[in-house]
Design brief:
By secondary structure, this protein is α/β, with parallel strands linked by helices. Strand 3, helix 3 and strand 4 form a beta-alpha-beta unit. Helix 4 crosses helix 5. It is globular, with a radius of gyration of 20 Å. The protein starts with a helix and ends with a helix.
Length: 223
């Protein structure tokens, strides 16, 4: 009898442990497989028509955070190297007081990128939304998505799930400057993978609207 109850308790305890491992490792495995061989440095990045630069916070004066500056700097390098022709900057603008895309454009233009090569997406509230809108609203089919290295794998996976041929550029320049923040971001990413899978499986719609010709027009001007 004791052996019976012992085996039963083993089964009872094993099931939630296994389910927990699947819940954690499954999304991580999906992101790893979907982004394998697609994450590069700027120097190694292949050529694509568009870079999707994801928002990462601005301060009260509209100045990009160090993490966002690093992403924008990578976008500038891609543009100067001729590896992209248009920069689509996607960020949060839920209130008049908080406008990531405009701050991102201003930073890029100040760094020498022509205004006409920068297109703004004001409803990129998270990575899933930015990827979905890049394809469904801005008509992007091939893209290089730019973020920090610990995050860009998920961004590549989500952009591919949105229907785009996708490469990624992962910045590591802020890792040594902000090691604690980097570790926190890396840990949060494991939880974010769960949400990414839920969004893809549920086919959640982002903020939508009429198709926007900005990327198409910018590409036409640079062809």
């Amino acid at each position: 009898m004791k052996r019976f109850w012992g085996r039963r308790w083993v089964r009872v305890l094993t099931v939630p442990v296994v389910l927990g491992l699947v819940a954690v490792l499954g999304p991580w495995l999906w992101v790893s497989v979907a982004s394998a061989g697609r994450v590069h440095s700027v120097a190694e990045a292949p050529t694509t028509p568009v870079a999707l630069v994801l928002g990462a916070g601005i301060d009260a004066n509209g100045v990009p955070s160090p993490y966002l500056k690093a992403r924008l700097d990578a976008g500038v390098e891609l543009y100067r190297a001729g590896k992209v022709r248009v920069l689509l900057v996607s960020g949060d603008n839920r209130t008049h007081a908080y406008d990531e895309p405009t701050a991102m454009r201003d930073y890029l233009v100040a760094a020498g990128v022509p205004t006409e090569a920068v297109v703004l997406d004001f409803a990129g509230r998270d990575t899933y939304d930015s990827c979905q809108r890049a394809h469904r609203i801005f008509g992007v089919d091939e893209v290089t998505v730019v973020s920090q290295r610990y995050h860009v794998g998920r961004a590549v996976a989500l952009c591919r799930a949105a229907g785009m041929t996708t490469q990624g550029v992962g910045d590591v320049s802020v890792r040594d400057r902000f090691p604690r923040d980097w570790r926190i971001g890396w840990a949060r990413e494991k939880v974010a993978n769960l949400k990414a899978v839920a969004d893809v499986v549920s086919r959640r719609d982002p903020v939508l609207g009429d198709p926007e010709p900005g990327v198409r027009d910018a590409l036409a001007r640079t062809s």
